[in-house]
Amino acid sequence: MPIKLTTPISEEEIRKLKVGDEVLLSGTIVTARDQAHKLMVEEKPDFIREYLKDSVIYHCGPVVKKNDDGSWEFVAAGPTTSSREEPYQADVICEYQVRGVIGKGGMGPRTAEGLKKCGAVYFHAVGGAGSLIAKKVIKVKEVFKLEEFGTPEAFWVIEVEDFPVVVTMDSHGNSLHKQILEKSEEKAKELMGLK
Amino acid sequence: MELKEAVLELIRRVATDLPPDIEEALKKAYEREDEGTPAKSVFKTILENVELARKNSTPICQDTGSLIFYIDFPVGHAEKTYREAIEWAAAEATKRQYLRPNAVDPITGKNSGNNIGKNAPYIHFHQWDKDEVRIRLMLKGGGSENVGIQYKLPDSNLKAGRDLQGVKKVIIDAAVKAQGFGCAPGTLGVGIGGDRVTSYALSKEQFFRKLNERNPNPEIAKLEEELYQELNELGIGPMGFGGKTTVLGVHIDAQHRHPATYYVSISYMCWAYRRKFLTIKDGEVTYAD
User: Fold this and answer.
1) What does the pLDDT read at residue B196?
2) Looking at residue A152, what DSSP letter applies?
3) How far is Cα A61 from Cα A128, in angstroms, rounded to an integer?
4) Residue A172 catalytic?
5) Of A25, B76, B92, B125, whose Cβ has the fewest other Cβ atoms within 10 Å?
6) Which of A60, A28, A34, A30 is closest to A47 using CA atoms?
7) What is the ipTM of this complex?
């Protein structure tokens, strides 16, 4: 049975999670990708602080619709490749006390170290499942840097309900991505006759 | 139907509806995985998503990619007519949320907001002697594009020589390197030979082939079949969670090369394999997968 978690999430709660746990996530989270991460590390802006504390960053560049009453709606919103944020992620997690990151593909050793040190996990969502995941976004609460960064790269503060994710990197140094990579590299060597 | 309206409908179909051969392959992949594994639940989510996107006419993936058009047109037609129709259709499709605005000025970093810019959408023009127009479109996401890779044989690290065995080695290497970046299970398009540009072009055009369509050259067809089997033994699985399906297919083609060069270019298409085409004959528009 999936574990249900709602933001804000305490450090104690997040440290209980292990690689392989399926989680249904609810509450307020924030989308951020390349330009947003660069900004958070280089300028440490305060406007996003209250939304990130004990919350979750979602690596996502959504397709968004503006309704006639001026409100926003997510039309498609799957995860983007996380590894591009590898140079920034650990610093962002510790600076803003973030408890989790949702993305796809997993992240590297610097992030793994940050998860351990500051108490956070990496959640994997299904890449490409844009229409389905958008249905889990029940409200768009706020948007920052829309004009400057454009729709895919803005900070979208959203409320999600039962967003399905799997823990693939935990706060104890385990990474499913590292395991699969090592195994597949071994198999590849065998197939190439290099072993 | 007006040309621009026909192109808009093509964009809508490509962004929101997978070709039947791809959907069928994903269903078979779902059947193959063991109960209770993350791989099984990933395929379930993927299939639910495909159905929902089709039903609601919303994008399958939020990364609606770059628009890459291939147009074959009869003698006497002006390229400008097609470019204008495509630009109108791309902007309109963005307004209707079939597309995410994905055209960014590399110098200023500014998103144009409507998928139009210098060389965007990309259009490959080709004049032919038929009296009909064929417009093919693929939408290719950024994650899958980033894992495209070009090898120059021989490659001493991989002990890959200038022959089909060498080609096979670099394709295996590319599949391993793509994990975590392109959304598996993917399809590989491979171009052997040509110069650097035409090699990549050949690799990408393979994505217009149907999954079960083998290269007419029996040696290449054999390599495609072997690689399909062996890459699925890598155990990378959907989304890199481990599993039995790492690729849906491998499409290879070859072209003549300079004696001094031997390029192998590999393009990756994610599971959200979006391609379709339309034909216009005597004013009638027909859509096909």
Assistant:
1) 98
2) G
3) 12
4) no
5) B76
6) A30
7) 0.91
Contact A63 B41 (CB under 8 A): no
Q: Spell out the long-range contacts of A110-114 with Cβ–Cβ below 8 A and sequence spacing 24 or more.
A: A110/A86, A111/A85, A111/A86, A111/A169, A112/A169, A112/A173, A112/A175, A114/A89, A114/A90
**Buried-exposed string A167-191: b where 16+ CB fall within 10 A, e elsewhere:** bbbbbeebbbbbebbeebeebbeeb
Q: Does A86 touch chain B (CB under 8 A)?
A: no
Q: What is the pLDDT of residues B4-56, one digit of tens each?
A: 999 999 999 999 999 999 999 999 999 999 998 889 989 999 999 999 999 99
How many Cβ pairs closer than 8 A exist between chain A and B? 170
For B179, the closest of A80, A152, A181 (CB atoms) is A181
Residues B117 and B121: their CA atoms lie apart, in Å, by 7
Nearest by CB to B270, from A128, A183, A194: name it.
A128
Strands A121-124 and A137-144: unpaired
Query: By C-alpha distance, which of B151, B141, B217, B150 is closest to B186?
Result: B141
Reported as type and span, the H/E element at residue B277 is strand B274-281
**Cα–Cα distance, B17 to B272 (Å, whole number):** 9
Work out the end-to-end distance of chain B between its first and last CA atoms, rounded to an integer number of angstroms: 19
**For the segment B165-187, what is each residue's pLDDT rounded down to a tens digit?**
999 999 999 999 999 889 999 99
For residue A68, count CB atoms less than 10 angstroms from its CB and return exposed for 0-12, middle for 13-18, buried for 19 or more.
exposed
In angstroms, rounded to a whole number, what is the distance separating the alpha carbons of residues A188 and A178? 15
